[in-house]
């Protein structure tokens, strides 16, 4: 969603990172993570390296660290910990591994684990992102701790890998502090976790599965979704618009709470951006779209897909919006203000040349969300906030420009 430029503030933190060795973390796992790990201190990266994009929710901070992992016996670990972080995304500046050796980046409980060998083969190892500099970014790990492990039978203490940076995700309070937001929740916020509607609105729930959280270059957040039957994704141009940004970003499907009103999202399924296909012309008040593909497409096909409406919608049409406002687990906007009250509708189907308008609740991070009608076709691509006229780019106009690049069903 388009917002004013945000201010950034410096945050002092203590990061834990253990030194690799034969005796490191010899205590049981549960006990190991209950103590503060020994660590060199991380530093906030220069301001120029921090994420900043007009209209995109800033959700993380880039930190630098000097971390070297050796060829130690299996079980040697380095802990990258930033207390209170919502995620940790680790950067390896280099890997020096022999065939059969590998590195894993995992959450302490093992719920998430990503494996990287010397060849960085996405087919046999884990996905990853790149930023045009030396090395690669591991996929993010939800929570405030990433456990990096060298798996090797060699006892040599020569360097096997070097960690030089990581992104740490802001908590909810920090997200508010780092983002100026246009008021886009109109009156009462009627959004609810998608699982709340699994029984009462099974079609809306099912269609929402094709919607993913978009982590942009480690520090920004939007929403994205599958379009058509082939490997194609849509989001806003103002979220990203270059091949390097696509390659540096990850898409997290099925990031949603397991219970209504709970705080228990699963890790979901993460893939990285692959190929940039088309970007709209004009500014962010016009069609504002980016069409691209992902790596490991087979991993996300089970979440389904969405199709664009090919004709204009009409004022008064019932509508709903699934998305990741503020980077939160997926929520659905179905009702205007009160559950089981008035449903969201299109307020003006011709707000201007490019946009429809509505007062269905959205917030920063909802940029790129699909706006669907009662037939579950996408009638708009959400991108502008400001009650009572939140706006979405007209889907049939987007279709006219990308029809040859998608299989719209």
From TrEMBL:
Q: Which residues form a coiled coil?
A: none
- Where in the sequence is the signal peptide annotated? 1-32
User: Which InterPro entries does the record cross-reference, listed alphabetically?
Assistant: Peptidase_S1_PA, Peptidase_S1_PA_chymotrypsin
Keyword Signal part of the UniProt annotation: yes
Q: Which UniProt keywords apply?
A: Signal
Q: Does the keyword Signal apply?
A: yes
Q: Which Pfam families does this entry report, sorted A to Z? A: Trypsin_2
Q: This protein is called what?
A: Trypsin-like peptidase domain-containing protein
The species this protein was found in: Micromonospora zamorensis
Lineage here is: Bacteria, Bacillati, Actinomycetota, Actinomycetes, Micromonosporales
């Amino acid at each position: 969603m388009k917002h004013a430029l945000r201010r950034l503030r410096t945050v002092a933190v203590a990061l834990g990172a253990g030194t690799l060795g034969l005796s490191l973390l010899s205590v049981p796992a549960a006990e190991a993570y209950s103590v503060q790990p020994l660590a060199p201190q991380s530093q906030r990266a220069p301001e120029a390296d921090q994420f900043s994009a007009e209209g995109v929710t800033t959700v993380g901070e880039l930190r630098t660290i000097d971390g070297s992992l050796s060829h130690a016996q299996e079980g040697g670990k380095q802990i990258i910990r930033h207390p209170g972080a919502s995620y940790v995304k680790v950067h390896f500046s280099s890997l020096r591994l022999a065939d059969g050796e590998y590195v894993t980046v995992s959450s302490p409980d093992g719920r998430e684990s990503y494996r990287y060998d010397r060849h960085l083969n996405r087919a046999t190892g884990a996905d990853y992102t790149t930023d045009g500099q030396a090395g690669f970014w591991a996929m993010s790990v939800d929570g405030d701790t990433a456990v990096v492990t060298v798996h090797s039978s060699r006892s040599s203490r020569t360097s096997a890998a070097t960690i030089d940076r990581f992104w740490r995700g802001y908590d909810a309070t920090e997200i508010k502090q780092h983002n100026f937001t246009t008021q886009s929740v109109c009156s009462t916020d009627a959004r609810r976790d998608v699982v709340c509607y699994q029984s009462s609105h099974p079609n809306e729930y099912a269609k929402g599965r094709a919607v993913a959280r978009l982590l942009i270059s480690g520090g920004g957040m939007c929403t994205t979704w599958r379009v058509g039957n082939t490997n194609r994704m849509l989001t806003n141009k103002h979220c990203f618009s270059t091949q390097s940004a696509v390659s540096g970003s990850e898409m997290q499907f099925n990031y949603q709470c397991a219970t209504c009103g709970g705080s228990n999202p699963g890790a979901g399924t993460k893939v990285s951006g692959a190929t940039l296909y088309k970007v709209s012309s004009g500014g962010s008040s016009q069609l504002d779209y980016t069409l691209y593909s992902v790596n490991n497409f087979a991993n996300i096909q089970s979440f389904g897909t969405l199709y664009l409406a090919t004709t204009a919608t009409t004022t008064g049409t019932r509508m709903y919006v699934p998305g990741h406002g503020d980077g939160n687990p997926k929520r659905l906007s179905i009702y205007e203000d009160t559950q089981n009250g008035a449903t969201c509708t299109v307020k003006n189907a011709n707000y201007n040349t490019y946009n429809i308008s509505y007062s269905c609740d959205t917030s920063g991070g909802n940029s790129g969300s699909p706006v669907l009608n009662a037939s579950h076709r996408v009638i708009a691509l959400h991108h502008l906030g400001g009650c009572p006229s939140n706006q979405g780019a007209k889907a049939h106009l987007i279709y006219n420009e990308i029809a040859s690049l998608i299989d719209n069903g």
